[in-house]
């Protein structure tokens, strides 16, 4: 591969120094990160090297034999790209349209094409459409009655390669064909010091630019911002030259369109602020539609902390950290680093304690410690000695201990920060016990914020616990993002400026239901967004009341606005699905599950009770072709083929993995080819498969390579033949012999 030049004249990207084909070693994570796409990309999946050639001018390639296993991925040249971003409240809806050319496969051959799209922070896929010649594909969210159909899908058909990395594989595309794709997703807006910002991966490598260079390319970016309030929106910064095209009240539109020689080499970034000298916000209401899952109208209360430099509550903080065996290695090291930074950010007047838990419980101190240089230094030393992974997971005991220690806190805001990567059997009981305890303590109850690490913990349990505790929930699904995510979560939850918030809307409405269990406090680091359903008529103004850090009561007048420009159902859908799923999990309420299903299908967002599938249809099929397809038993355009997409659900925790202290994969998917080969091998002889049921043997089989698995398959087949021969001999020779 040293002198290889891809068809079209572009050399492939040079491999990094020290890069090995195998996985292992300390530098592999950073190397893999550099190889991941930083913009929407399409790759030719090449298994036969003889098919690689220029479609228009074939060349003579002698001595090209064999097959590539695993397949080679060749980046495709891109002809068009169009980025559209709609920002509203705290969400951004992103649409990318792109067209690629299968420039590296001769026209007489075909190959699969894999489209990979990196989404922004906390991105949720909303849908995709792909067109290749007469074939078209589009995603759809459907209710899943039989969950076994998902397991039958091809492992590489589509879904999430890793968190925030969505892909689709389109099969059998002829060389020289154009592939057009539209991908839609939503992502959270960052908020920092009164400024909203959105970051979208948009760095295209040089080798996706088509040759020759005389072919000029049009780069288009469209952006709309709708604050939802009658406040001035101020542009703070942008990575690409944007021109303001329109301003209608609180809605702004920008556009960038230019002829470029090369595609964008930097991510798209845009930041803006909504002018607000102090706490401000509004109530946005929208009537229900015929397609809505609920006939009640929808509302959203949105509060901005403003730039008034409100005083942050003094706090008593208890960190409850999981140090079970599954936390070993990078997860615990990243948590330790984040903890060190968080402790250094506590101020004089605060109190703190640290509890670690596995099968046992260990506390830094028997009581709350005042924050000073000596106590923080002692805590850091204690962390270095006691943050050692080992043992199982028990959450209820350390939570009770934390709540008991905070009962003695006065004139401060009590807070618990729980971090875990495991799922336990008594999660329902924990929620009910904590809820009862917090209700008994009233306004002085501790705030409970939760953080989930990886894929084995029950994120809906943690979300529900944070909702009950008026705290904040967050998660990290990749090892490299743990430290930054934990710090952002801690800063948001520990910067309370208004507590014990109440809304007086209930006095004017027949029904008023919020999606969360309780209204959380207002943080200086994040806007407050409360959604829900109501019945009746909102007054023109609504008052929100709460208490400041000096215990003075504050009233915030919120104007009620009936909006049409912001689709509240779509902007709030992901948040509502998460909260309603957590409620349905806790209550086992089938009606709530049905609401989640309807909300998921209506807004094309996959949930725990629905699945996203890729529908394949044929366009422009004449009558003769339809008859041929029916005679051959093929599905026509009226019967699209459904291909389930993988890894789009979190699930409700993996207790078996927690009990066995398996280190969470953090989005790293095990290769399924080995499992498929093992399944085939086991199918040759059911008696032999029964002997392979012990966990030790299964783990050993998971680590064998493909060649070993093939040998095992052949051995099993030989034993099966011998068994059949023995059975036939007994039948033919009779019972006497």
UniProtKB/TrEMBL annotation:
CDD domains: vWA_interalpha_trypsin_inhibitor. Residues 316-501 form the VWFA domain. InterPro entries: VWF_A, vWFA_dom_sf. Coiled coil: none annotated. Gene3D superfamilies: von Willebrand factor, type A domain. It holds the Pfam family VWA_3. SMART domains: VWA (SM00327). This is VWFA domain-containing protein. It comes from Oryza nivara (Indian wild rice).
């Amino acid at each position: 591969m040293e002198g290889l030049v891809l068809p079209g004249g572009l050399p492939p990207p040079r491999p990094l120094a020290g890069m090995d084909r195998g996985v292992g070693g300390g530098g592999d994570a950073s190397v893999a990160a550099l190889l991941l796409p930083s913009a929407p990309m399409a790759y030719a999946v090449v298994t036969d090297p003889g098919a690689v050639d220029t479609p228009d001018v074939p060349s003579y390639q002698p001595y090209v034999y064999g097959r590539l296993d695993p397949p080679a991925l060749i980046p495709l040249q891109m002809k068009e790209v169009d980025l559209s971003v709609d920002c509203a409240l705290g969400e951004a809806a992103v649409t990318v349209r792109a067209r690629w050319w299968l420039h590296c496969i001769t026209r007489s051959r075909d190959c699969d094409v894999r489209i990979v799209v990196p989404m922004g922070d906390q991105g949720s896929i909303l849908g995709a459409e792909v067109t290749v010649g007469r074939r078209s594909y589009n995603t759809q969210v459907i209710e899943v009655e039989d969950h076994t159909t998902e397991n039958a899908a091809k492992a590489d058909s589509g879904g999430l390669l890793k968190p925030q990395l969505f892909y689709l594989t389109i099969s059998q595309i002829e060389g020289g064909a154009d592939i057009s794709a539209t991908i839609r997703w939503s992502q959270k807006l960052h908020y920092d010091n009164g400024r909203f910002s959105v970051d979208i991966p948009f760095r295209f490598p040089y080798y996706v630019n088509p040759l020759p260079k005389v072919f000029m390319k049009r780069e288009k970016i469209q952006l709309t911002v709708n604050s939802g309030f009658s406040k001035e929106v101020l542009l703070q910064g942008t990575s690409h030259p944007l021109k303001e095209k329109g301003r209608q009240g609180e809605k702004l539109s920008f556009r960038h369109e230019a002829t470029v020689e090369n595609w964008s080499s930097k991510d798209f970034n845009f930041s803006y602020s909504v002018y607000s000298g102090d706490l401000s916000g509004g109530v946005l209401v929208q009537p229900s539609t015929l397609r809505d899952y609920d006939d009640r109208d929808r509302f959203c209360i949105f509060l901005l902390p403003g730039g008034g430099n409100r005083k942050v509550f003094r706090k008593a903080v208890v960190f409850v950290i999981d140090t079970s065996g599954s936390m070993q290695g990078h997860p615990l090291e990243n948590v330790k680093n984040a903890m060190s930074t968080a402790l250094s950010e506590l101020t004089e007047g605060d109190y703190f304690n640290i509890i670690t838990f596995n099968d046992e419980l260990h506390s830094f101190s028997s009581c709350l410690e005042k924050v000073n240089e000596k106590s923080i230094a002692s805590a850091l030393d204690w962390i270095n000695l006691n943050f050692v992974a080992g043992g199982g997971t028990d959450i209820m005991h350390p939570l009770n201990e934390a709540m008991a220690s905070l009962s003695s806190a006065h004139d401060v805001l009590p807070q618990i920060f729980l971090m875990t990567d495991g799922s336990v059997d008594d999660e329902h009981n924990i929620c009910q016990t904590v809820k009862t305890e917090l209700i008994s303590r009233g306004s002085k109850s501790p705030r409970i914020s939760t953080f989930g690490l990886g894929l084995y913990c029950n994120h809906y349990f943690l979300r529900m616990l944070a909702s009950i505790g008026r705290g904040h929930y967050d998660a990290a699904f990749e090892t490299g993002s743990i430290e930054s995510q934990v710090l952002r979560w801690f800063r948001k939850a520990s910067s309370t400026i208004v507590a014990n918030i109440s809304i007086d809307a209930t006095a004017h409405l027949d029904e008023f239901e919020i999606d969360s269990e309780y209204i959380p406090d207002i943080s200086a680091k994040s806007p407050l967004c409360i959604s829900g359903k109501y019945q009746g008529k909102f007054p023109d103004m609504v008052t929100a009341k709460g208490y400041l850090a000096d215990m003075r009561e504050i009233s915030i007048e919120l104007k009620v606005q009936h909006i049409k420009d912001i689709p509240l159902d779509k902007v709030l859908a992901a948040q509502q699905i998460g909260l309603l799923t957590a409620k349905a999990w806790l209550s086992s309420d089938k009606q709530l599950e049905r609401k989640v299903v309807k909300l998921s299908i209506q807004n094309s967002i996959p949930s725990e009770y629905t699945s996203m599938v890729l529908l394949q249809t044929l366009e422009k099929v004449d009558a003769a072709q339809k008859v041929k397809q029916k005679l051959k038993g093929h599905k026509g355009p009226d019967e699209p083929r459904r291909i389930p997409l993988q890894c789009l659900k979190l699930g409700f925790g993996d207790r078996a993995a927690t009990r066995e202290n398996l280190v969470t994969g953090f989005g790293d998917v095990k290769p399924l080819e080995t499992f498929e080969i093992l399944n085939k091998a086991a199918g040759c002889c059911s008696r032999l498969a029964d002997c392979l049921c012990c966990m030790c043997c299964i783990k050993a089989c998971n680590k064998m390579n493909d060649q070993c698995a093939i040998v095992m398959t052949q051995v099993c087949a030989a034993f099966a033949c011998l068994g059949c021969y023995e059975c036939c001999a007994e039948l033919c020779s009779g019972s006497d012999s």
